[in-house]
Amino acid sequence: ELFVRLHLAGFFWGDCSLSNTLFRRDAGALAAYLVDAETAELHPHLSDGLRTHDLNVATENIAGEMFDLRAAGLLDQSIDPIDTAAELAPRYQQLWSELTRDEVVARDESYRINARVKRLNDLGFDVSQIEIHTEEGGRRLRFDTHVVDPGHHARRVFALTGLRVQENQARTLLSDLARFRGTWAAGVGHDIPEDLAARRWLDEKFYGTLQLVPAELRAKLPDAELFHEISEHRWLLSESHGHDVGRATAVQSYVDTVLRLLPDTRVDLSSGPPTQEFAP
């Protein structure tokens, strides 16, 4: 994961090894950081040759260091240095491919865009922009990904739309906005400024979707949570049908099968907070 992040930024390490990497525990997982960049080079874009060379150097260094750990009695006997080091390249290629490969999606398979975004999110990357190019047979996708600080999504949504939402809700909204902007840009043949796309998305997509929900049921959930739930429902419904079912169908299905069954979570504060009696 660290290698992919560096290579996406055009960063050639040149001497990756365990001793040049800092590993820290992060909520039960391990996070890796580069700590020695003496041999590094920064390029606008890394060629396949440079990436492969970086991987080969890393594989050799890691294998050698693991043999040193074994010799010092610090490596469990069940761990094979060669096999472990050899796992680096194929795992790197899988993640690199998921992040960078083009994908052609048929016009009635828009749900596959959401599926790709979800896979990228699960791998720890966020989608900042989606390029969509129309061609024979469908639309070709290309994703611009990045890593963000905690709380970034909620702050970004507020800056673009004025909506105050939770972090996971914000991630859904930003992914949907990126898809909306990419589709718009593909239709007109040029890029669309993000703030302009956000204003149109807010009116047409966000509130346009919520307005399809019956007024007496809409208050059951906060707007952002309701939009997220509908988006998830549409994706699952489309995937099961093998084609994009459309917004109206997804909303109606969600209302009938999910929303009507939810309890009313509204709180009436008009009479003030409830009083409590405590025994002395």
Describe this protein's structure.
By secondary structure, the chain is an alpha+beta fold. Helix content is 52%, strand content 14%. The protein contains eleven helices and seven strands. The protein has helices spanning 2-8, 48-71, 81-86, 88-100, 111-122, 152-161, 167-188, 194-210, 215-218, 223-241, 247-257, and strands spanning 11-12, 21-26, 29-34, 41-42, 103-105, 126-135, 138-146. A three-stranded antiparallel sheet has the order 5-7-6. Strands 1-4 form a two-stranded antiparallel ribbon. It has a two-stranded antiparallel sheet with strand order 2-3. β2 (21-26) and β3 form a beta hairpin. α5 crosses α10 (223-241) and α7 (167-188) packs across α10 (223-241). It is elongated. Residues 274-280 have low confidence and may be disordered.
Can you list the strand order of the major beta sheet?
A: 5-7-6
β-strand number: 7
Radius of gyration: 24 Å
Biggest sheet descriptor: 3 strands, antiparallel
Straight-line distance between termini: 59 Å
Number of helices: 11
Strand content: 5-15%
Shape estimate = elongated
Helix content: 40-55%
Low-confidence stretches: 274-280
Overall average pLDDT:
83
Task: Give the structural class.
Answer: alpha+beta
- H/E element string? HEEEEHHHEHEEHHHHHH
